[in-house]
Amino acid sequence: MEKRKGMMKRYYLLITALLLMQSVMGQTSFSTKAIDQQVESLMATMTLDEKIAQIEGTRLRDIMVDGKVSLEKCREHIPHGIGHFCQFSSGQELPPEELRDLVREVQNYLMTETRLKIPAIFHEEAITGFATYQATTFPQQIGMGCSWNPDLVQQNTSAISKSMREVGASFALSPMIDISRTAHWNRHQESYGEDSYLTSRMGVAFVQGLQGDDLKTGVAATVKHFAGYGTKNNSVKELYEEYLMPHEACIKVGNAKSVMPSYGTYKALPISMSPTMLDQILRKEIGFDGLVVSDYGAINMIYKKYKRAPDQMTAGAMALNAGVDIELSSPMTFPYLKDALKKGLVTESDIDQAVRRSLTMKARLGLLVDNPAIGKDGDLDFDPASNRQLAYQSAVESIVLLKNDGVLPLKKSTRKIALVGPNASTVHCLLGDYTYQAMRAFWKSAKFDELNPKLVTLKEGLESKVGRKVKIQHERGCDWSAALEATIDKDGFGDDRLSKLKMISVQDLPQPDLKRAMKIAKESDVIIAAMGENIYLNGEGRWRKGIGLPGQQEEFVKQLIATGKPVVLVLFGGRQQVIADIEKDCTAIVNAWFPGEEGGNAVADILLGNANPSGKLCVTYPRTQEKKEIDYKMGYDADDQPQYPFGYGLSYTSYQYNNIQLSKEAQLTDKAIEVSCSITNTGKTDGAEVVQLYISPLDKNTTMKPIQLKGFQKVKLKKGETKEITFKVSPQVLAQYKNNKWIVEGGNYAFKIGASSTDIRLSASVNIKGEPLELREGRKEFFSSTTIQNQKLNK
What we know:
This protein is of the alpha/beta class.
C-alpha cells in the first residue's frame, strides 16, 4: 500500500511538473496522447536499421543522376527511409513547380517502396527568405535587427512559410539568435546584434511567423546555435542571463520545438557532446521537450576536429547520449550506432528516444497521416507583389542614418549626381549569407540569376526615381579590394572557393576608372559613394583581416572629400565598418547592411526623402578595429567612446519626449510596474521613432549591469502628432543568476526612456520593496507589454 502511495505521489508530481512546464508563457507540449500512441505503434514494428534511418539526414544529390531522381540510387542509399533531406532547394536551380514535383517524386518513393512508408522532412535555410530559386530575398538579420520591428519580422516569416509549404518543405534551420558583440565575427551579419532582449523579441517573432498557429500547416523553426556561439560563453552568469535568453524566449514564448547546438564548446567540451548544455540546461532547466538536430558535420567534429573521440562510432554515441537526436547533413557517425549498441556505448532506449522525437516532429508536421499533402498544385509564385512590398518595407526600416549635415534628403535643386564606388551598381552588396544567391555562389561556385527574383541595384533604384532634370553619372572608381582581403576557413572548407566567388562578383564588370570617377565627382552637385562589402568579404567560412573599409575604398573616399563636394557615404555589408578617419568629413552617412532584393529602391527612397529613415543600431558601432567584444550594458568608457552607440539612428524629423510617469514605490511581487510618457513629432515630416526603455540599478552593491534594454516600441507619428506610450514591466525582468538560482532583488532602479542607450530623454526612479525572490521555475517573464494611446496635440 505504501509503495502504491509513493508511486501515485511521484505520478502527481510528474503531472504537476509537466503542467507547469507547458504553462510557461504559452509553451505547449511537443506531443499529444494521440501522437504518442501513433508513434509507439509505429516503433513497435521497426527494425534497428529503420530506426537509425529516421535520425539521419542526407542530400538529394545522393539519390540523383544527371539532375533526375534515380530509383536505383534511392533503393541503394535510403532503403529503410530517411529522417531529413537537407538544404534540398539551395543546391538546385529549379523553378517552384519543378522543385515541388521533385519533392513529390522522392516522397512517392518513400511512401510506396519503403516498408514503413514514412515521408521525409525536407528542410532549408530561411534566415533571409526561403533559400530557393526565384524566392523573395529579404534583408539580412542584422539589418532586420536595426528595424526594431518584430511585427514586420513575423510578416516576413509568415510569407516564407507559405512558399516553403507550397513545395513540400516543412522545416527550417532558422532563426540564428546568437548574441554577437564583435564585428570581427564572420557570422555577425546573421545575428540580431548584441542585445539579448532585442534578439529575443525578434527571434520570437521569427518563430511565430514561420510556425503559424499549427505546425501541420506551418514550418517548424530551428533556433540556433545553442548556446553562446561566436562569443565568450564560459561565464556562467553571462551564459544564463544573456546568451540563453533568446533561446529560452523562443522556446517558452515562441513555442519552438527544434534546437540546433553550435559548433562551439562549453567548458572545453564540444556542445554536441555536452550533457550540461543539452540535457541539464536545455531540457531540465529550460524545459525543452522537442527535437535536437546537429549542425552540419558537427558530430563528426567531436572526432575529427576536437579529438574527443577515438573514432566516428564513439563520436556518434557521445552526441546521442548527450541529447542530439538527428545527425545532419549526411550520415557520418550515426550509421555506426548499431556497432555502438553492441559495444555498450549506447542503449536501445537511447536510440528509441531520438527516434521517438524524430517521428513526433513528423507527426506534428502532418507527415504521418494517410495521404499527406505534399506541396500545392498549380502554378506557384515565390516572389509575388505582396512579398516584394514586404522586402521593400523591411529594407527601408533596416537602413540606419548615421550622420546628416543637412544634405539629405537630396534637394530638389540637385541636378548632377555622381554615383561612385564598387557597390553603386552591383547586386553582390544586396545579398547576405544564406540567401539562395550567396549559397549558390559560395558553395557551388556558380553564377546566379539576378532577375529571378529581380535584384534592384542602387543605380537602378535612383534612376527610376529621380526626375528627368537630374543627371546621374556612374563610375566604380575602385574595386572592393584589389587583393582578395579575406581568407577561407580551410579547416571546414578546404579549397579555393573564395577566389572563384570573387571572379563571379566581378565578371562582366569593367575595370574601375579612378580618373573618370574623380572627373564626374568634381562636376556633380553631390557625390553618392557606395562602399563596403559583398558576399565574398563576409559570411561563414570567410574571415577578413580587419573591419575597416576593404581595399583602397577609404583612400578613394578621401579623394572624393577633397573635391569639396558633399559626400554621402552609403555603406553596404554585414558588419559595422570602421570609418573614424573619414566620418567627420562626410556630409552624410547611411548604413544599408545587406538589404535584399529591394535594396536599391529602399536606399534611393531614403536618399531622396520618399521614405523617412527609422532604423536604430542593434549593435555598437566601434571607432577602432581593435579585436574585442563590446557590450553597451557595461557603459562606454569616457576615453573609449564608440563612433555611434547602441540604439542610435537619425531621422528627417525630430521627436520630443515628455511627461514620464512612474510610481515611486513598487513590490517585488507586483505583476507589473507601469511607466509611461508622451512623444511628439515636432518636425515637418511623418516618421517612426523607436522609443527605448532602459533600466539601471541605483544601489552601489548591485551585481546588475549598469544599463539594460527592457522594452521598446516603434511608434508611427504624423507631423505634429502626439502619442502616449505605456510600458508594463514585470519585476522578473530584473532577475539575476546567482549561486545556481534565479533571484530577483529589490532596491532602487532608474527607468530611462530614450532614443538610444546614451540619448536618454526621460528618467524616473522607483524603490522596489521586498525580500529577494527566488524564481523556482526559472524565468517566465521576458517581455514588457506596451500600449499606445493617441492623444490630440494642443495647437
